[in-house]
Amino acid sequence: MPAPSPLPDGLSLADARKDEHFAAMSLLHALGWRDTYRGFVPDEYMAREITDDRWVSCFREDSRTGRYRGLLLYRENVPVSCINYGPARIGAGRADTICTFDSRGYEGWGEIVSLYTRPGERGKGYGGLLLEEAILRLRAAGHKNAFVFVLRENEKARSFYSAHGFTWDGSHTDIPFPPNTVCVDLRYVKTL
């Protein structure tokens, strides 16, 4: 893997490999879901499923198998943003994930699986730092293209990814949430 890109003073980057990293990343995911998807994902589902430790076991398993990598950005020892990336998810996916994506036809691609920044820390460039580092690492791993799924209604995220060279390729996936809500995720792609 390439060495991490230089970071501004006060910021540090950690490859997520420890339980403390997994707990911090899970909390960032939960805070992101509660803030970003409110009004789109049913409230009952959010209250029941989106707990602070919801993703700890997923991150632990990803680290153990090496399937996906996690990076955690700290500002003066406070976790402020995280990203998960790796090869495209092909097939039905794991049973312990909230959303499953089938990306047949994108074999060999890299994927930005998730990117969340603590709501009060957005707009400071943290997500961009992590995204660019993950892109460098995907390229170093041999991926020539990458994609990310973005909620159709999430205009800020769509603008963010567009500003980093991603474009919607016209494909999408429907994500059903009980009892009767369907969210649409658009696939944004980039040549690496």
Helix content: 25-40%
Summed over residues and divided by their number, the pLDDT gives a mean of 91
- Distance between termini? 16 Å
The stretches of 5 or more residues where confidence is low (pLDDT under 50) are none
Largest sheet: 7 strands, mixed
The geometry reads as: globular
Beta-strand percentage? 25-35%
* Count of β-strands: 7
- Order of strands in the sheet with the most strands? 1-2-3-4-5-7-6
Describe this protein's structure.
With 192 residues, the protein is an alpha+beta fold. It has 5 helices and 7 strands; from the N terminus they run βαααβββαβαββ. It has helices at residues 19-36, 43-49, 56-65, 126-140, 155-163; strands spanning 11-15, 69-75, 78-87, 110-117, 145-151, 167-177, 181-191. The chain has a 7-stranded mixed beta sheet, with helices on both faces. A hairpin with a 2-residue loop joins strand 2 (69-75) and strand 3. Helix 1 packs across helix 3 (56-65). The mean pLDDT is 91.
